[in-house]
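Example 3.2
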Amino acid sequence: MKKGFTLVELLIVVIVVAILATFAIPQYLKAVERAKEGKAKHNMSLIAQGQKMYRAENDTYTAVAAGNHDATLGSYIELADVDADSDWSYVSAAPASDQFTVTATRAAGGPNAGETIVLDQDGTWTDNFTP
């Protein structure tokens, strides 16, 4: 007598695995996007700290283009990893000497490309990101 699996048994296993993957993969992708959102918020908090330190010394906030946070605020807080983030682009705006906003924009290529998160000088979050 030969031992082994029949074709029907193998097909049932493949079907069960496919059904499980149908539910697991979307949940995994959402978890990855939520983790990237958390990383963006952490980085934005670091930029906000740098802005506040900059204002303490210069009596004003400063506008910073994407990829230049470490060059501008790096003497106050290390932001090289923020500038190197490939998932998000961070821009600081300073519309007045006592105001700033940090905007994170999701990089192209992901499911949430172009969506934004905004943090202002008061610590108010405006989250248009939907993982």
